[in-house]
Amino acid sequence: MTDSNPSDPTRNASITDHTPRTDGGASPSRDGTDTRIGVDVGGTFTDVALSVDDDLVTAKVPSTDPQHIGVLEGLRKACDDAGIDPAEIDEFAHAMTVSVNALLERGGAKTALVTTEGFRDVLEIGRQDRPDLYDLEAEKPEPLVPRERRFEVSERTTTDGVEEPVDPDEVRDLAATLRDRDVEAVAISLLHAYADPENEERVAETLREELDVPVSASHEVLAEFREFERTSTTAVDAYVRPAIDRYVGRLVEESEDAGVPAPRIMQANGGIADPETVRDHAVTTTLSGPAAGVVGAAATVDDEDVEGLVTFDMGGTSSDVSLVRDGRAERTTDAEIDGLPIRTPMVDVNTVGAGGGSIAWVDAGGALRVGPRSSGADPGPACYGKGGTEPTVTDANVVLGYIGPETALGGEMTLDVEAAREALERLADEAGLESALEAARGVYRVANATMTRTIRSVTVERGHDPREFALVAFGGAGPMHAAALADSLEVDRVVVPRPGGVLSAFGLLAADESYDAVRTVGVDLNAADPTDLEAVYDDLVADVLADASDPDAAQVERAADCRYAGQSFELTVSADEEFDVEAVAERFHEAHERAYGYALDEAVEVVNLRATATVPGSEPTVRHEGPGDALVGTREAHFPGAGTEPRQATVYDRNRLVAGSTVSGPAILEQAESTTVVPPTWTGEILADGTLVMTQGGDSQ
């Protein structure tokens, strides 16, 4: 390792120094700066990032059930470490897993569905496709709303408007039935309510008057065509809404008691929103934590010299992979969680059940497998010493030497190395391997293969060459696996942000406020009347600005979902302030050619119009003043492709490394929240803001 003067410019051919901007913000604190905190709840740990006095303080505490207890514990811990009172916090942003846990564990509300007569079974019929074409035993997930709680009303709406009005007396009778069934939430999805919501509005108004439970109406949740997806998204919103309402309400109360501002909640679209907005639009909170991580990666790393960033977030339960291009996270409106379609805009995150706590096991054929079952935070991996006995990826990293016996996970949790070794020995016996070390190598290799496939799915399978991207690794376990993944993908640049162990929490500090609205129009582009389209855009823009905290500061973007006539899928292209038919057509042709390799001389349809309002946030300053004297010692570690013998890896305290320092592998950089592995043939460099950039080349031994 070489220490250079901290004031020397840090040079890198592909990734430039990035100190986030400090302009803007709100509620100046005692010294004219903002004191902001972000808290992200994961499956194993709750991560905290506190920006105070132009410095960054991070913390990690075990996640709890209910989640708000761990949130407040982490908040207080970070404040104690920073030497401030929680009441001095100016802004509080939060990401949680309440909604996604309710879906995965089927622990949501007792929900009823109200739909048009004859369409009771839309949720069950779906798209009449199979989850796995060649699996004869594959089963679709059970609908969130069972058939006995799906009800029909007599009404008829077409794309041209209402043909049969709804009968108010019938709806009141239905309300009595729902009350007798003790339902906890109601979803309403009437046929073609996206085109004319009059009947659905009447049903929703009556049920809200008659019942004391939340009511989700499809024209408010997703004003798009496709009955199955619209109904599914509305049912998801209703299903998770009581849980979100209880959780957010409790957290707001507890925050006020602590003198902390009400939390602003990260949405799946990568933007934050006030508590009342997300309580009314609960479906927007799915995957809020992974979205925050991608936002944090985009804010930490400049990508102007590469095609983009592959973000790799490996936590305790799962790994999340996404793309950042042109400084912005890729988004999608076509997502599923546990087989349930959700059509709201969200950061395009691919999740795989391979995290630090993922349990390794042997299948019926004798093959070694990893995940998706996880040890969670309690009892956790065997090395936690909390009663866990099953081998996990973290235990494998302990046996491989990446995590040492003196390492304190989260800054305070000491490790039981012998328990990890015993768990891997039992796995070795079951798998027919020679030793705990061989089992650990196998677990590491299988976990990496699983994550490599996920990265290929968002790059190679979408026409992107991963070699043109930088891999940004974060999460508690991500930096330990990143270089090995990069080797298999032939990626020669790995970036580990300084707050990499809590980057989702850091992303909350950097997030903008964002709101989306959509409406189906379904017109031929050449025959479309721009005046009619502008009228729709006016309504959409009004909707998103109504949610914005500062409409005057909001930046509005307009877009259109287009397709060739006869296609069953759409591509989204931007739409100018004045709708230009020729410009939109040209953008669609170009987008189609990029996505599929060809464009057609065919008529183009405008299917949906979209509007997004963004109130820009102010990214926190990350100041790195490593004092030097970072050498901790050496440790024997085993690396893929480096033979069967262990290598002496130099161990550093990463936070003490001076800006401009270079680290040659094999080396291990330790932080309270994460550990970074620099394998042989890799070299790392510390940038001015503390970011570590690893590149291929060099071996210190």
Overall morphology: globular
Largest sheet: 9 strands, mixed
Taking the alpha carbons of the first and last residues, their distance comes to: 12 Å
Low-pLDDT parts are 1-32
Count the E strands: 35
How do the helices and strands line up, and which of them pair or pack?
Blueprint (H helix, E strand, L loop, with lengths): L35 E6 L3 E8 L2 E8 L4 H16 L8 E5 L2 H7 L6 E6 L5 H4 L24 E4 L2 E3 L2 E4 L3 H13 L4 E5 L8 H13 L4 E3 H4 L5 H31 L6 E3 L5 E2 L1 H6 L7 H13 L7 E7 L4 E7 L2 E2 L1 E2 L2 E3 L2 E3 L3 E2 L2 E3 L5 E5 L5 E7 L18 H7 L17 H15 L4 H23 L10 E6 L3 H12 L3 E4 L6 H8 L2 E12 L5 H18 L7 E10 L6 E5 L5 H16 L7 E12 L15 E7 L9 E7 L8 E3 L2 E4 L4 E4 L3 E5 L5 E5 L5
Features:
26% strand; 701 residues; nine-stranded mixed sheet; single chain; six-stranded mixed sheet
What does this protein look like?
The N terminus is likely disordered. It contains 16 helices and 35 strands. The longest helix has 31 residues. Strands 13, 14, 15, 20, 23, 24, 31, 34 and 35 form a nine-stranded mixed β-sheet that branches. A six-stranded mixed β-sheet has the order 3-2-1-4-11-12, with helices on both faces. The radius of gyration is 26 Å and the shape is globular. By secondary structure, the protein is α+β, with helices and mostly antiparallel strands.
Short précis:
The chain is α+β, with helices and mostly antiparallel strands and 701 residues long.
